[in-house]
Design brief:
The structure is a homodimer of 193-residue chains. Chain A has 193 residues and is an all-alpha fold. Chain A has nine helices and no strands. Chain B binds a DNA duplex (30 and 30 nucleotides) through helix 3.
Chain lengths: 193, 193
DNA sequence: AGCAGCTTATACCGATCAGTATAACAAAAA
DNA sequence: TTTTTGTTATACTGATCGGTATAAGCTGCT
């Protein structure tokens, strides 16, 4: 090898993720990505191949950095009831602090995903499945420990929680304000109350 | 006046609505609209003015024909508990029968809406408010009649129902299948059980 | 020194975008 | 019959799209 890349690929990917996150795949143009990353057109294509490949890498980075780590941290608490409660508290905080109204990259892609390929759909489907799994495990462990009532169906309630989380993030992009989002979050938390 | 329009404006609007519904505003091209409506380019612009104006008319038509009439029919039942139950049953049926995965035009636009103007946002916000209002009124009337428990907060539960309805329609566009949608619908119905 | 490989800027490709212009045509009203 | 008005097909505008090509410059290895 003769030379190392002189721009930071990770930084460029981080910037690309922000662009796709806020604009979506279709609305984000190569020009947007070039301006935001500061990387030359040719270098971008040399490093990532295509717009779609860059999108996939961006989505995977988001999935890794946000979805995965968020759930892992909450699950590491080893306090299932509180983990669920904290999840929705943090979700509303994130949404309210999201002044750009970007929403959640994963949830945004659910809607855009129908026009994407199988690879993107698989990433999204896996992300949703793992969020649902997080809720389910919280409920199950909570039931074992007697924190959560036994008559609650973990699978059903986990699906309802995922649905409410999605709605909070989608409605939080502009249609609903903080007070309404808090109401929905409270309803989500009350599922295991 | 010298001559009447020789193409049916309502039919063209119906077709346009279908195009915007399935593709969204950005992804729907004028060429798509011309092909689908069968109306000439010039005539389309003469009749509707612009792509955005045609989108607004399409969204209003959807709001009138689907959202408004669906809620009105259910409310006319004058059986609040059943109306809510039927709402979610019909929602899942619509979603499952929606083999094109178009989803709900109104909910789809919630996500796309951030990049739209105030007019579109107002239509969407009004639609959401009326759906929520439908749920709230059903609960309130149900409580007056003793069908629904008094300790249920109509406003909060109505918001939760709207959120779950949105999620069903969004997830139904490909991420979730019928069985999972039925689970979420059952959870929505169980709110007043 | 010279090669290799990545950088940059810039220009270009064909395609598509929303929207406009033009001209021939058709039908109803004057 | 002439005027009016909306129809059609077609061509065009300028802009942007994703992606490629090219040429000159920079850096590190041999």
């Amino acid at each position: 090898m003769s030379w190392e890349k002189s721009f930071d690929v990770d930084t460029a990917l981080e910037k690309s993720m922000q662009v796709f996150w806020s604009k979506g795949f279709e609305s984000a143009s190569i020009t947007n990505l070039i301006e935001e990353t500061g990387v030359n057109r040719g270098s971008l294509y040399n490093a990532f191949g295509s717009k779609r490949a860059l999108f996939v890498k961006s989505l995977l980075k988001y999935d890794q950095e946000y979805r995965k780590t968020t759930l892992a941290k909450l699950e590491a608490l080893d306090q299932p009831s509180q983990a669920i409660s904290r999840f929705f508290d943090d979700l509303v905080i994130s949404t309210v602090e999201d002044t750009e109204h970007k929403g959640c990259f994963l949830f945004n892609t659910v809607l855009e995903a129908q026009q994407h390929d199988a690879e993107v759909n698989a990433i999204v489907a896996n992300g949703l499945r793992e969020i649902e799994g997080f809720f389910r495990r919280c409920i199950e462990v909570g039931q074992v420990r007697g924190e959560i009532r036994q008559d609650i169906q973990p699978e059903s309630k986990a699906k309802a929680m995922l649905a409410l989380a999605l709605a909070i993030r989608v409605l939080g992009r502009g249609a609903y304000h903080e007070s309404a989002l808090n109401v929905i979050a409270a309803e989500a938390k009350s599922i295991i109350a």
